């Protein structure tokens, strides 16, 4: 076990530093983890570049990172289901456990939610980190630590598909072929969707979508005529999708999610863009298109782990780049600029002699 606790701390816009921090001690219901893999998420990049993501604003130094896996090194006195040496995926958000939302099973809506690397709470891009044991999921031996870290974005895809009501024979339009769009694609296919079409600005990302099972793809140029895009989508389906999931968050895609969806269908908004956008609500109301929001996930990690462990889906194709924690600045630069066709950038936390993917 590393003696140091090298940690990636965001001090402000364009100010990400590596520094030593004390190794924490787990509370009675927590475990101490030797962190292994931490993926870079779009929200991490937003905090670095803009100092905020949606309504969450960085106001003090914050440890970055929330897509993670690690190895248990110590357990608190009340922890029974985990032991030292267990490899786990970390669900990074947990509620107060006593409010109506938490008791009702929708803890992602808890007003007192603690979520890694969401201001004011620290994340887990560090050598060592403590976390509530009941939000750590033991990985089967054949599931890799990289796959464990990818359960976080995959859970967003699972939650989005559940919110959309994707099922056998569903015709699903996915807007955006970034990491969240791609995990939503593979989740929709695993849930029995009959046809899935994916749109994006970049052909190389759509090429990956085709590899992962998309039945059709469409490059949409910035500023393209809205109704022409709707027609192209409908032509690809040979009709109209009954589910549309916007994984971009741009105003253009939010509008398209309503306009392209079949009357009586469901448009789910996952991507977080500007705080306020213009939507064609009269169109949605007249055609009874349900508009549903997605905020992270809840009770979706077990399903995500089952999909990976059973071999029904393969998330490893999403990982395009590997870095060590000492190379965090380079890793973020690769992710934010999409260098080398970057989709998911993975940071390996332990020292090079213990865990060096290169």
Automatic annotation (TrEMBL):
InterPro entries in the cross-refs: ADH-like_C, ADH-like_N, ADH_Zn_CS, ER, GroES-like_sf, NAD(P)-bd_dom_sf, SDH-like
Annotated ranges, domain Enoyl reductase (ER): 12-347
List cofactor names only. Zn(2+)
Q: Which GO terms describe its biological process?
A: sorbitol catabolic process
Q: Which GO terms describe its molecular function?
A: L-iditol 2-dehydrogenase (NAD+) activity; zinc ion binding
Q: Does the keyword Lipid metabolism apply?
A: no
Q: Which Gene3D superfamilies match?
A: Medium-chain alcohol dehydrogenases, catalytic domain, NAD(P)-binding Rossmann-like Domain
One Pfam short name:
ADH_N
Q: Which UniProt keywords apply?
A: Metal-binding, NAD, Oxidoreductase, Zinc
Tell whether Metal-binding is among the UniProt keywords. Answer: yes
As for family, the record states:
Belongs to the zinc-containing alcohol dehydrogenase family.
What protein name is recorded for this chain? Answer: Sorbitol dehydrogenase
Source species of the chain:
Aedes aegypti (Yellowfever mosquito)
């Amino acid at each position: 076990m590393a003696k140091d606790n090298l940690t990636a701390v965001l001090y402000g816009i364009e100010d990400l530093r590596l520094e030593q921090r004390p190794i924490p001690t787990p509370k009675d219901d927590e475990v101490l983890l030797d962190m292994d893999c931490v993926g870079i998420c779009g929200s991490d990049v937003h905090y670095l570049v803009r100092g905020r993501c949606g309504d969450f604003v960085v106001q003090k130094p914050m440890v970055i990172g929330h897509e993670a896996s690690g190895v248990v090194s110590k357990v608190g006195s009340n922890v029974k289901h985990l032991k030292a040496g267990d490899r786990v995926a970390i669900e990074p958000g947990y509620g107060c456990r006593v409010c109506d939302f938490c008791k009702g099973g929708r803890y992602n809506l808890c007003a007192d939610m603690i979520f890694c690397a969401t201001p004011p709470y620290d994340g887990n891009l560090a050598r060592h980190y403590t976390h509530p044991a009941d939000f750590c999921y033991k990985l089967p031996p054949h599931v890799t630590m990289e796959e464990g870290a990818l359960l976080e974005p995959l859970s967003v895809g699972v939650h989005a598909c559940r919110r959309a009501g994707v099922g056998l024979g569903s015709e699903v339009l996915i807007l955006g072929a970034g990491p969240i769009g791609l995990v939503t694609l593979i989740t929709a296919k695993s849930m029995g969707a009959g046809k899935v079409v994916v749109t994006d600005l970049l052909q190389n990302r759509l090429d990956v979508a085709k590899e992962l099972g998309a039945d059709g793809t469409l490059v949409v140029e910035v500023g393209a005529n809205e109704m022409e895009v709707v027609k192209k989508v409908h032509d690809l389906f040979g009709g109209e999708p009954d589910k549309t999931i916007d994984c971009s968050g741009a105003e253009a895609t939010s509008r398209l999610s309503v306009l392209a969806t079949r009357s009586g269908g469901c448009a789910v908004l996952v991507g977080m863009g500007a705080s306020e956008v213009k939507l064609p609500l009269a169109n949605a109301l007249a055609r009874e298109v349900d508009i549903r929001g997605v905020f992270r996930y809840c009770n979706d990690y077990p399903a995500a782990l089952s999909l990976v462990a059973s071999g029904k889906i393969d998330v490893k194709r999403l990982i395009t780049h590997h870095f060590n924690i000492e190379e965090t600045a380079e890793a973020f630069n690769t992710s934010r600029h999409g260098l080398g066709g970057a989709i998911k950038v993975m940071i390996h936390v332990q020292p090079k002699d213990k865990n060096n993917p290169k």
